[in-house]
Design goal:
Elements: H1 8-12, E1 19-26, E2 29-43, E3 46-56, E4 64-68, H2 69-78, E5 90-96
Antiparallel strand pairs: 1-2, 1-5, 2-3, 3-4
């Protein structure tokens, strides 16, 4: 008997309607999202990255934020990411509220 395994994109649809607060940085670039998740799509690199779209709840929030697959899996399992080391050149923090 075959077991049906949902793709990460299908699993992530359970996050739609939930609130998220996330921030991240890569070298000199940074950004954040805060709001209700409206859509989750695959990024340019297929299963390697996923774009979380939100209805922002603050003027400082971007409309979307890109997570790698391992971060999305952690958000699904734990509702948060481990706190990133602020002394590194890149990092991502996120919490499902």
């Amino acid at each position: 008997m075959e077991t049906l395994t949902l793709s990460l994109l299908e699993q992530s649809q359970s996050l739609i309607g939930k609130s998220i607060c996330a921030d991240g940085w890569q070298r000199d670039n940074s950004g954040m999202i805060s709001g209700v998740i409206t859509e989750i799509t695959k990024g340019r690199f297929g299963d390697l990255e996923y774009i979380v779209h939100v209805e922002p709840n603050t003027v400082f929030s971007m409309d979307s934020f890109t997570f790698n697959a391992s971060h999305l899996k952690m958000l699904l399992a734990d509702g948060k990411l481990p706190i990133a080391n602020k002394f590194l050149n890149s990092g991502t923090n996120a919490n499902i509220l």
